[in-house]
Amino acid sequence: MIEPEHPGLSITRQCSLLEISRSSWYYEALGESELNLTLMRLIDEQFLETPYFGARQMARYLRRQGYKVNRKRAHRLMQKMGLAALYQKPNTSKPHPEHKVYPYLLKGLDIQASNQVWCADITYIPMRKGFLYLVAVMDWNSRKVLSWRLSNLLDTEFCVAALQEALAKYGKPQIFNTDQGSQFTSLEFTEVLKAADIKISMDSKGRWMDNVMIERLWRSLKYECIYLNAFETGSEAKSGIDKWIRLYNEERPHSSLDDKTPHEAYWNLPRAGYPVKLVA
Fold first, then answer.
1. Parent domain of 52
2. What whole-number distance in Å separates Cα of residue 59 and Cα of residue 167?
3. Cα separation of 27 and 222, whole Å?
4. Residue 188's CB: how many other CB atoms inside 10 A?
């Protein structure tokens, strides 16, 4: 769909209109073998159930499923998927010297309003013949997905694009919370937040519960959409995810939201099907 020689639209503008990162156009994927894609799918499913599994334990799990996999291979595949065991462990790698890690600001905070806290996270999306990465921005109080982007690269660009879209559509939150992934600690991402005068919060290392709202979103998305469809192409994945997120936002009530949908809770609307009280 990209036309490099288009007289009126640059490649950057075409990528923006198609809601893909520019790096996706230039990137030439080497691809993974069919066996590795199967292993990555199994790892992804098991990781949802046991997010504390490291490469050694995951290799044991795969061997029990009948696959000859050592720890080194499991580690490489988990790295490619952006997965790491969620437990406190020594800091064996140094972050980029320009990447500042910010303190966690949500402990003990009473979150009662839309745009009080937003959060973001990235997850791996398996497909029949490949994989993509999905980033989403969510309002913590209402659970509403404010924006999202797909990319075939685990880079910063598509995360910044999702953040900018959410800010353009919904204003800004008081606090923005993420994990300590390099995409979120990058200067490109944090400078957008600083320019909007938004407080930056980051999960404690290895503490998936610090961003639990969006972790629950990933679980529902994968079991109800991704695993059931096995999308063939990126366009199929984008269409299927878009349909599921619209249903999640606008039609799916949450008991924790007093049976409102995320859309109703975000805009403080009455529950659908309930009479509106009129004041004389």
1. 11-81
2. 41
3. 26
4. 13
